[in-house]
Design goal:
Elements lengths: L1 H24 L6 E2 L10 E10 L4 E14 L4 E11 L2 E11 L5 E6 L22 E2 L3 E14 L2 E23 L2 E22 L2 E18 L5 E15 L1 H4 L8 E18 L2
Antiparallel strand pairs: 1-7, 2-3, 2-13, 3-4, 4-5, 5-6, 8-9, 9-10, 10-11, 11-12, 12-13
Length: 273
């Protein structure tokens, strides 16, 4: 009987040691993250977007294709082409960003009026900190930038200032079209002021836009690319037509337009080189 008890005790001891070893060797949940845009030249991303505008009430559907056209030691160049459908009519816009692997913008050029660095909901435009972060960590980016672009309306010079506060929301699995992505959530709150001067018919139209964009993005933990985002934007656009109508006696002519919108972006397809 004593022998049976001894053997049983040995078996139980071995089982307990094995269980303890199994528990100790299991991976602990990841709690710190080092986010970068882990892109290769030739990577392609396709996104779909829906924007709902309150006044005038409208819905804009958009398809956006992103190509990583160059990757260097200290820079990534991405090209984005978007096709939007508004009231049944299609319009095309494009922009290029030369940035660091953490998303700091080094150079920006735009075909039309898109200035992506104030639109946090746009794919792959977030700025990541150059250090590990944990849930509830915050960081801030700011910019004061001059630039220009040419559109059908004429040549436009602009001055943009903005401050964005980011907050890490932690790890979450996002499911899209039967695929799952381990993602980090990032909340962003952007206050911006955009002043533009557009030359048209030898006259200048001045526009002052102040706004706030608030929402969250979920980005792939390993690749850094956007998986989905959802944002609310509130803007007040003040347009000064005084120079345009001065010749007919209207010395001061202004128009103020509030614009509130809700925008979502989702990853449709990805092709990694």
């Amino acid at each position: 009987m004593n022998l049976k008890i001894f053997v049983l005790a040995v078996v139980i001891l071995i089982s307990l040691v094995g269980a303890a070893y199994t528990v100790n060797t299991q991976k602990s949940p990841q709690t710190s993250y080092n986010l970068t845009y882990n892109f290769e030249k030739g990577d392609k991303f396709n996104y779909k977007s829906v924007s709902s505008i309150e006044k005038p009430k409208n819905t804009i559907s958009e398809n956006i294709d992103i190509l990583v056209s160059d990757v260097g030691k200290n820079h990534i160049t991405i090209q984005a082409i978007s096709t939007a459908t508004i009231n049944g009519n299609k319009t095309e816009d494009s922009y290029y960003i030369n940035m660091t692997s953490h998303g700091s913008s080094m150079e920006l050029s735009s075909k039309n009026s898109t200035i992506p660095i104030i639109h946090s909901e746009l794919p792959n435009t977030l700025t990541y900190p150059e250090k590990e972060i944990k849930k509830d960590d915050t960081w801030i980016t700011a910019l004061d930038k001059f630039g220009n672009y040419t559109s059908d309306e004429g040549s436009t010079n602009y001055n943009l200032t903005y401050v964005t506060k980011y907050e890490c929301l932690g790890l979450k699995t996002i499911y899209l079209d039967a695929k799952y992505f381990d993602c980090i959530g990032i909340k962003s709150d952007t206050n911006f002021t955009l002043n533009t001067a557009t030359m048209a018919l030898n006259k200048t139209i001045y526009v002052n836009t102040t706004g706030n964009t608030l929402g969250e993005s979920w980005v792939d933990l390993k690749g850094g690319f956007l998986v989905k985002s959802e944002y609310d934007t509130k803007e007040i656009v003040k347009t000064d037509y005084s120079d345009l109508y001065e010749e007919i006696g209207l010395e001061k002519l202004y128009r103020e337009t509030p614009i509130n919108s809700h925008t979502t972006y989702e990853l449709v397809n990805i092709k990694k080189e």
